[in-house]
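User: Please fill in residues for this 276-position structure.
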């Protein structure tokens, strides 16, 4: 699946991103004790909130750090966060080990994401289990968007991974690395290979690619959910990666700004920099 660039320019956004990234790295905030731990919690909180989790940031932290399930919230939402967090920790370890992205790896990540909330399906296309990372054997829709026929999914994911393998060692600059990760996320979620969890899995693989290359994982903030959806829709309609890329770069700028400002204003406790 290819997406061609259009006059939808993102140069100014990328320049701002590059400057903020350099400033963030110069402050060495990512070297603080427990920064990675809480950053991964923060990513998990926002990724699952985008998909419907009602937990607050503090409730997520207490759940993931201390095992305290929030009262008055659906248990399924806590399960979503647990599963995503453990999938993200798995992805971080595998990125450090420099494991190649294969269809089997993507299915393993999907199984971890859907471990506690997936289910068996018995449909006309055949039986499959979303909690085991099986590809879907049904048609899927989100709003007015339809996705490829399930019979094409396996071949499309395989081709996507093969194309990625050719690019992995050819990216050098930070924008090249982020572009590659952002585009893979877009292509995978556009295939929608699973019955559920496609957004979470696609964002996890995006962050796998960033961590593999030594870059800061990306966050898509829950309060910007609709803008995120709109950017994906615009990229599909224009057959261009630029709307989606611009949105995702701005999300990173937002997060870098948040942590830089916190440091400048007196250096809060590391977890407080991630609170709503």
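Assistant: Residues filled in for all 276 positions:
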């Amino acid at each position: 699946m290819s997406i061609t660039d259009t006059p939808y320019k993102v140069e100014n956004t990328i320049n701002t991103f590059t400057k903020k990234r350099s400033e963030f790295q110069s402050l060495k905030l990512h070297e603080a004790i427990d920064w990675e731990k809480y950053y991964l919690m923060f990513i998990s909180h926002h990724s699952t909130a985008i998909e419907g989790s009602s937990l607050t940031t503090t409730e997520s932290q207490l759940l993931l750090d201390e095992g305290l399930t929030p009262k008055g919230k659906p248990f399924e939402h806590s399960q979503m966060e647990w599963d995503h967090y453990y999938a993200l920790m798995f992805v971080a370890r595998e990125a450090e080990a420099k494991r190649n992205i294969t269809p089997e790896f993507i299915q393993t990540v999907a199984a971890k994401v859907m471990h506690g909330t997936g289910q068996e399906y018995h449909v006309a296309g055949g039986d499959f289990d979303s909690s085991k990372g099986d590809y879907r054997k049904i048609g899927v829709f989100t709003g007015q968007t339809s996705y490829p026929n399930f019979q094409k999914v396996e071949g499309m994911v395989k081709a996507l991974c093969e194309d990625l393998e050719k690019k992995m060692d050819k990216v050098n600059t930070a924008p090249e690395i982020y572009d590659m990760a952002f585009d893979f996320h877009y292509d995978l979620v556009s295939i929608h290979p699973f019955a559920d969890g496609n957004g979470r899995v696609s964002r996890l693989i995006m962050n796998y690619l960033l961590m593999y290359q030594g870059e800061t994982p990306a966050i898509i903030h829950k309060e910007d959910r609709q803008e995120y959806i709109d950017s994906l829709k615009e990229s599909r309609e224009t057959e261009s990666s630029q709307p989606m890329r611009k949105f995702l770069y701005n999300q990173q700028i937002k997060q870098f700004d948040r942590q830089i400002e916190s440091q400048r204003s007196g250096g809060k406790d590391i977890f407080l920099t991630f609170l709503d």
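For context: The chain is about 60% helix and 5% strand.
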